[in-house]
Amino acid sequence: MAVLVAPRPDQQAAIMTLRLAVLETMAVLETIRTAGTLEQSTSPLGPWLAGMLFATLVLAFGLILVGRTLASGALPPLAQLLIVMLGVALFLNRGGRFLRDWVPVFVGGLAYLLSANAVQSFDFTVHYTPQIEAERALFGGSLPSIWLQSQLYDGTTGVLEIFTTLMYVSHFIAPIALAFLIWAVWDRRGFVDLLFAILVVTVLGEITFVLAPTAPPWLAAEEGLIPPVHDVIRQALYDMGLTPIADQFHSPSYNTVAAIPSLHAAWPLIGVFVALKYRLPRWVVCFQASLVVGVLFAIIYSGEHYVVDALVGAVYAVVAWWIVQLALGPRVGAAQFDGR
């Protein structure tokens, strides 16, 4: 006789995340279907007015979803952000082009979510000491995370802790925002390079996470291998009223053994490469460079990564960029820069 076993809490969280992703995917697909049929309709209001009305509805729908999600103390998922961006694209009369360029982004984001959840089910040996030894060798026996917290953290959430949290969370928002700006404002200059480079470095990172899982400083501290590390970001999230995000932070559904390479360090660095190659406005280059510095401080101060993790992440970013440039070739880059 078969015995039914209730899923563990972490499995329930993964199932709920997947269910929400599927439901939001269906909403995106329905929006896409409606956008396709709109071009074939003959509205008495005229094509332009009908298009603006539809764009308004899509944008309003996306903003309502994002607003409700933020009001609940959670971060909006990729599907909700894509609906908002689709509304903007429709206002620009570029709905079809948006669907062509961004549906693969959504598919890649969903694949990343599924792969991150799958890694949690693997029972591999987690490496703790190599990165600790490398860190001490680089910094004369001290650990930067421990030193920074001893000098700067007083146990309360202040401006520095809020800044650290925002820099950490920017990992999930800044690349999408940069890609959309490139797509909407600068005629896709570097759009392909950015997305493919992030995809390549993420795949390389996921392979490393599976083959050699590594623990961050806060987890090593919990095991008693290094002095205590304060959970700066999680406490800040609670103090900022973002309880649902704080509850998921370092939970079983969170990939806690993906320290090397640091994708937090790799992704904004790729943004710098794109901004420099395609000569984007100076403020974009400065912002991306500042984001790299801010994220590096945040992940080390909070104990989410060692400096070694960030250095390896930077190397992975360079390798991914080299692979993408080799694959795309100079003709693709030149065509994008010319706006073709």
List keywords for this structure.
single chain, 340 residues, mainly alpha, 2 domains, 0% strand, globular, disordered N terminus, disordered C terminus
What can you see in these coordinates?
- This protein has 2 domains: 13-119, no CATH class; 124-340, no CATH class.
- Mean pLDDT is 80; it is low at 1-5, 37-43 and 331-340.
- Helix 3 packs antiparallel against helix 4 and helix 7 (159-169) crosses helix 14.
- The protein is mainly alpha-helical.
- The chain has helices at residues 9-38, 47-71, 78-91, 95-119, 129-138, 144-152, 159-169, 174-184, 191-211, 217-222, 232-239, 243-248, 263-277, 282-301, 307-337.
- The chain is globular.
- It has 15 helices and no strands.
